[in-house]
Specification:
The protein is an alpha/beta fold. It contains 18 helices and six strands. It folds into three domains: 192 residues, 2-Layer Sandwich (Nucleotidyltransferase, domain 5), CATH 3.30.420; 87 residues, HRDC domain (DNA polymerase, domain 1, Orthogonal Bundle), CATH 1.10.150.80; 72 residues, Orthogonal Bundle (DNA polymerase, domain 1). Strand 2 and strand 3 form a beta hairpin. It starts with 10 loop residues before the first strand and ends with a helix.
């Protein structure tokens, strides 16, 4: 068993668009693309692409988007359904691909997802997973590097290459493990198949249930909060600024709480920086007024409150079942059920309704744990 990474990593920093096209054809011919990105996000809304790493199973190709302007061959490769893409913990990388390339990698396998079905936990890092599955110890000396600085050093390029060259072996090792249990193999495949659709869904709409304190608001004030979040999202994207640099979360919630429709009311919001009030005050007030004037049928449904003591006990009971089932299946408990989904199941059981859209009662989770959780929730209610 290897205990260290190979002394020599074979990679090529592609010099131009012609070289990128040839590399893309190599990957297409192999039917496999191990993919990673390096990016920076400090003062911007969008992550700034700094490097794309491609591995076709034999050769690692490093693509510098600051040098190669036309990345269409890479975008076409990502969209090619005949090429299987392998990534690790890919949520931010998908954002980079969508923004810089206008394409997302499909079909996609995330080795972090496979790891959760192989008993490694939900959030195991690439370095640790390579060690656990392949017995290779990777250095992580460039984790704090400025990837937008040029030229990139040999150490940086080697680090970037290592982030993809082990992905096919990781995939093969964990797939072989999962194939011993056809159910888990199917569940893992279904979870991976949903990654890109979920990423696209996150791009639209505001999840008010995920906004702290939103449960305290009635429907008109929720409409105001929804409008404010949607406005801020547009502003952050248009100006490429972090959301909090436009207006902080706490300010949006407070503005909606008091239904601020005039400058006097807006001036009482301590959470709103003075510069933001001067710059955006009129637009904020217009957004609130328009939301409050909506027909009630167009207003959001109430956000459920946090569970009370009795419901919390039931959620804990369901969580214990999740852990027990997780140990029996060898699947990370967080992969089986999130706390928010358990709370929804308990609320519905208490109220006598059915959580028809719950992830626990749809897809692979229904078979794995959803039906038993729903039965337990109703028995305890």
């Amino acid at each position: 068993m290897n205990t260290t990474a190979p002394a020599s990593i074979s990679f090529t920093l592609l010099p131009d668009g012609d070289a990128l096209r040839r590399a893309a054809e190599r990957c297409r011919a192999s039917g496999l693309l191990a993919l990673d990105t390096e990016f920076m996000r400090v003062r911007t809304f969008y992550a700034q692409a700094a490097l794309f790493q491609l591995f076709d199973g034999q050769q690692c190709h490093l693509v510098d988007p600051l040098v190669i302007e036309d990345l269409s061959p890479l975008a076409e490769l990502l969209s090619d359904p005949s090429v299987t893409k392998i990534m690790h913990s890919c949520s931010e990388d998908l954002e980079v691909c969508g923004r810089r390339l206008g394409a997302l990698p499909e079909p996609l396998i995330d080795t972090q997802v496979l790891a959760a079905f192989c008993g490694h936990g939900l959030s195991v890092g690439y370095q640790r997973l390579v060690g656990l599955e392949l017995g290779v110890e990777l250095e992580k000396s460039e984790t704090r590097t400025d990837w937008l600085q040029r030229p990139l050093s040999d150490a940086q390029l080697k680090y970037a290459a290592e982030d993809v060259i082990y992905l096919p072996r990781l995939h093969a090792a964990m797939q072989a493990h999962l194939e011993k249990d056809p159910r888990k193999f199917g569940w893992a495949a279904a979870e991976c198949a949903g990654i890109v659709p979920r990423a696209r869904a996150r791009e639209s709409g505001v999840d008010l249930a995920g906004v702290g304190g939103a449960w305290r608001l009635d429907r008109p004030r929720l409409a105001a909060l929804r409008a404010l979040h949607a406005w801020r999202e547009r502003m952050a994207r248009d100006r490429d600024l972090p959301r909090s640099w436009v207006v902080p979360d706490a300010a949006l919630l407070r503005i909606a709480e008091i239904s601020a429709t005039d400058e006097r009311a807006l001036g009482t919001v301590a959470e709103l920086p003075e510069a933001a009030r001067r710059r955006h005050g009129k637009v904020i007030l217009a957004e609130v007024a328009a939301a409050l004037a909506l027909d009630p049928s167009h207003m959001p449904e109430p956000v459920p409150p946090p569970p009370g003591p009795a419901e919390t006990r039931r959620v804990k009971s369901l969580r214990a079942h999740v852990v027990e089932r997780s140990e029996a299946l060898g699947v990370a408990p967080e992969m089986l059920a999130k706390r928010r989904d358990l709370e929804e199941v308990v609320r519905c059981a208490v109220s006598g309704s059915t959580p028809a859209h719950s992830p626990l009662l749809n897809g692979w989770r229904r078979e794995a744990i959803g039906e038993s959780l729903w039965h337990l929730a109703n028995v305890s209610s």
